[in-house]
Design goal:
alpha/beta; seven-stranded mixed sheet; 5 helices
Length: 158
């Protein structure tokens, strides 16, 4: 169901050329990178948080994690992830296929600057077998993002 919603959203925008079906499950950053044949960093993972009582989404490079201080500076509160069992209800996609395409109304989407390091990034497209493969600029164009944020750090770098 999530893929059909994402697909309808992407079709409406005329951007299906960026969607690719994968034979190998892309339910994690590691699996997606293996299936696509890219680095884990080039996977555009979508994490969801509660901010002021409502869900938001941050799409970031696969080799990053949220920096609590930067998150708090931008959103004025500590990061609190949407509980896994509420992701479908609050965001509109199941874990493993969470993406910024065809999400529930009222979910604000932000892209992290960590994606700008790459010419091509790969986001889920509604399920764990379809990807949206594009430049960060194209991803920005076709997602309902509110803008770019700088709230992440590369895993392992302190």
């Amino acid at each position: 169901m999530s893929y059909e919603v994402a697909k309808a959203y992407i079709e409406k925008l005329g951007a299906m050329e960026y969607v690719h079906h994968r034979e190998i499950c892309i339910d994690t950053v590691e699996h997606a990178a293996q299936s696509i044949g890219c680095t884990e960093a080039e996977i555009a993972k979508s994490l969801t948080f509660m901010v002021d009582g409502k869900p938001i989404m941050v799409v970031m490079a696969g080799d990053t994690k949220v920096n609590s201080g930067k998150f708090k500076q931008y959103f004025h509160q500590k990061p609190s992830m949407v509980p896994r069992d509420l992701v479908q209800e609050l965001i509109g996609h199941e874990p493993g296929g969470v993406c910024a395409f065809g999400i529930n109304e009222g979910v604000d989407v932000y892209l992290d600057v960590s994606l700008k390091r790459f010419e091509m990034v790969h986001s889920a497209a509604g399920d764990d077998y379809n990807t949206f493969d594009s430049s960060p600029e194209i991803l920005e164009k076709y997602t309902p993002c509110k803008g770019w944020v700088d709230i992440c750090k590369i895993i392992g770098e302190e």
